[in-house]
Amino acid sequence: xxxxxxxxxxxxxxxxxxxxxxxxxxxxxxxxxxxxxxxxxxxxxxxxxxxxxxxxxxxxxxxxxxxxxxxxxxxxxxxxxxxxxxxxxxxxxxxxxxxxxxxxxxxxxxxxxxxxxxxxxxxxxxxxxxxxxxxxxxxxxxxxxxxxxxxxxxxxxxxxxxxxxxxxxxxxxxxxxxxxxxxxxxxxxxxxxxxxxxxxxxxxxxxxxxxxxxxxxxxxxxxxxxxxxxxxxxxxxxxxxxxxxxxxxxxxxxxx
Amino acid sequence: xxxxxxxxxxxxxxxxxxxxxxxxxxxxxxxxxxxxxxxxxxxxxxxxxxxxxxxxxxxxxxxxxxxxxxxxxxxxxxxxxxxxxxxxxxxxxxxxxxxxxxxxxxxxxxxxxxxxxxxxxxxxxxxxxxxxxxxxxxxxxxxxxxxxxxxxxxxxxxxxxxxxxxxxxxxxxxxxxxxxxxxxxxxxxxxxxxxxxxxxxxxxxxxxxxxxxxxxxxxxxxxxxxxxxxxxxxxxxxxxxxxxxxxxxxxxxxxx
Lengths: 256, 256
Fold this sequence. Notes:
The structure is a homodimer. Chain A is an all-alpha fold. Chain A contains twelve helices and no strands. Chain A starts with 13 loop residues before the first helix and ends with a helix. In chain A, 42% of the residues are buried. The mean pLDDT of chain A is 95. The A-B interface holds A 27-28, 34, 124-126, 128-130, 132-133, 136, 218, 221-223, 225-226, 229-230, 232-234, 237, 239-240, 242-244 and B 27-28, 34, 124-126, 128-130, 132-133, 136, 218, 221-223, 225-226, 229-230, 232-234, 237, 239-240, 242-244.
């Protein structure tokens, strides 16, 4: 691992630990995945963008569950209070409010039936497996690893800004209202990421815990990357859609 | 679902249930995946075959764990005794014996270091997530669904026979000794599949349980398919290997 200093047993300084997290982001965050380049550069058809939104819904759906799983594990009321804001961000205060509802607004804007998407039955198995792995990681690993796995949010704002600009410029079937989910994330992600980073730097007090936190962030990058691998495989070259998954060409019959 | 009769609430006959399982196999079993055609037809390089064996090890490694998880869940001593044969098949009676050791024999025959493969750190995240999903399914779903998820073995012998013949014919770096794992499976799989099929037909006594059993087999096909999706994406076209995963071109440095 390139971040390891000469003495691999020595505790890293807060600055070195943060630098190690940022190095993971530079090399493994899904901003660098070729599918995102295609998405943002306007290389995809509407059906392919639908496939992305439908599958990414599985990830959105798991977020409030993994956040609740984290809250359920700690006696630290401050951490619980802090993390509860994430639940509120995603689930809102009433039906139709919050991030998950805004993702379904995107779904509707792309011409898909939200009920079909919500059922997740047409999602790629590989995407569902990756999202479940994330939920289980947060529920089962140490608390500092669970928090560290959220640190992909450190890298999210740049990606989201590129996405909004690229999709608005390149797709006539997308407008600012369709993409309102991402506007909210531009504010929420930095606030959450700073707090989570501060928590991990305080709580990872041994080199072993620091290495575990770095590995947790790397794992989370693997989850996001695997989601795009599955999308890029199934929906870019022809003939690769797995049996039973969403097929843009057959979507009228499948979704009816 | 094409197997559903006009009266979707009516219990299916044993023959209809078996036919429904076989229909799942005809449409979703990974024998039909394009990666298997490439593997058997000699279209892959040695490095690509190494990538297949290294990643498939994750699946092999999860099999005795999912079998033990199933045994742990039942008070039926007959089922436990029967299922224990699977544990013995995979783990053997001493170090170097059993299916897992035979898979590592294949690994060695392909020129890979068994210790590197056993650590699973170079495996594709998508493959690991799929294997973990299978383990959790068996540990968490109803017993009849857990048993039904093993019914892919009904379809294994034809695939294995094709594999042995194709790989021996098409790859000069493979011989009969390398492939000894598959010889044993040709005997074990039919014996296990018949017993599991008989169990599911006896225990799935409502239409709801029968439908759940069919869905369990379909889920298992999704697991196997997703493993090959990940391999086909990462290792057939250039430029798609995820960060940190096995790279045949760099394997000397990576494996050293």
